[in-house]
Design brief:
Blueprint: H1 2-22, H2 36-39, E1 45-47, E2 53-56, H3 65-73, H4 77-95, H5 121-143, E3 158-161, E4 164-166, H6 173-185, H7 193-211, E5 214-220, E6 228-234, H8 238-250, E7 253-257, E8 274-276, E9 290-291, E10 314-315, H9 325-328, E11 334-350, E12 354-369
Parallel strand pairs: 4-6, 7-9
Antiparallel strand pairs: 1-2, 3-4, 5-6, 7-8, 10-12, 11-12
Length: 370
């Protein structure tokens, strides 16, 4: 076991060394912990006698001392963190699937690439969605009994209304927020505007999960009647969280530090000191996304900024929206090709228990940016 852990640790160190040599590593520690999503697997998750996941040896090199301590203090939580990151990456790619920046990821420790070193809208979304992912996954894992240090939120008890009462197992979003704040924010270093903005967007992700909690009820009564209901609080779907944060992305606020507009914060740096660059705009709320620099156009490959460009991306020739060939291809034009696609069709269920399908072939017309 020790020999296996040593080999896995060497593998993680090699990944970190490679990233530093190729220039893919972040210039600061922001988001470095995201790299555990590329190292985690069931093969290197060590368990205790109760089969609760405790330590992920290779990924610990990507975490700060404080983050490692939090994982040791909360057996089982590492799996939730990794699951939350997977959800965040999947949701980010879905929300931006038709945009010039389509949330590209890499297998390096800096999962989202060099965008993490910028201060644009896309950076804001990445920080918010990953913080929300950890909050959501940890809160759900608590109610599922997968983490030793937390359970369901049982604080809501007793009558809630004339025909319903609190009961059941509410998702523990407060523990999820608290842990995410301790774990995610601990990777931030510095006292400048970037530091404050990252903290603000981390909190915006957490608050979005919390504010979208919904009451869920179950009916009790004779013959299926609903004379009495038992209710609890349930997490929103992560798609709901992603949709909300995408709306906030579209309306994100460009901000400066309130100390005479300086980009340098005082010793008592506080995200509440952020104010709109345009004095006519209202201050950002705790759930708004904020940024401090304009986004690149993402049209062409640029190794310095880490943009991949849109060449080869599939576009919609009939759409005037952002997924249309005119906008997505940045005016460069596009090529058209046809391809045959074979899919299962006309499926029939046979008792019991077999499904038979035919193979149907169709021709699709695809448009790709030059």
């Amino acid at each position: 076991m020790r020999f296996l852990a040593l080999l896995l640790g060497v593998k993680a160190a090699s990944i970190l060394l490679l990233s530093s040599l190729t220039g893919t590593g972040a210039v600061n520690s922001s988001g470095r912990w995201w790299g555990i999503v590329n190292v985690a697997s069931s093969a290197n998750l060590l368990t205790n006698s109760k089969s609760v996941q405790l330590v992920l040896d290779p990924s610990l090199a990507l975490l700060s001392r404080r983050q490692r301590r939090l994982i040791r203090q909360n057996p089982g939580i590492l799996h939730a963190i990794v699951a939350g990151l997977h959800s965040a990456i999947k949701e980010c790619k879905w929300q931006f699937r038709n945009r010039r920046w389509n949330c590209p990821t890499t297998h390096s420790p800096t999962v989202f690439g060099k965008i993490v070193n910028r201060g644009c809208r896309e950076t804001a979304f990445v920080f918010a969605i990953t913080s929300a992912g950890v909050t959501h996954a940890v809160a759900r894992s608590c109610s599922e009994g997968a983490i030793e240090s937390c359970t369901c939120d049982y604080r809501r008890r007793g009558p809630g209304g004339p025909d319903w009462h609190w009961g059941g197992c509410s998702d523990n979003v407060d523990f999820g927020k608290l842990f995410s704040r301790e774990f995610v924010d601990s990777s931030e270093r510095g006292r400048d505007l970037r530091y404050l903005i990252n903290l603000h967007n981390n909190e915006a992700g957490r608050m979005t999960v919390s504010s979208e909690m919904q009451k869920e009820c179950k009916c009790h009564g004779m013959s299926g009647s609903c004379t009495v209901r038992t209710c609890w609080m349930r997490l929103p779907s992560f798609r709901t969280v992603g949709d909300f944060l995408k709306d906030r992305f579209d309306g994100a606020s460009r901000v400066v530090y309130a100390n005479k507009g300086s980009n340098r914060a005082s010793h008592h740096a506080d995200p509440r000191h952020l104010e709109p660059e345009n004095p006519a705009h209202k201050p950002p709320s705790v759930r708004d996304l904020v940024y401090f620099e304009k986004s690149p156009n993402f049209c062409s490959f640029n190794g310095r900024t880490g943009t991949q460009g849109t060449s080869g991306r599939t576009c919609n020739s009939s759409s005037p929206a952002l997924d249309g060939c005119e906008l997505l291809c940045c005016g460069r034009g596009y090529r058209t090709r046809t391809e045959k696609v074979t899919e299962r069709c006309h499926c029939t269920f046979h008792w019991c228990c077999h499904v038979s399908c035919l193979n149907c072939t169709s021709t699709q017309i695809l448009h790709q940016c030059l």
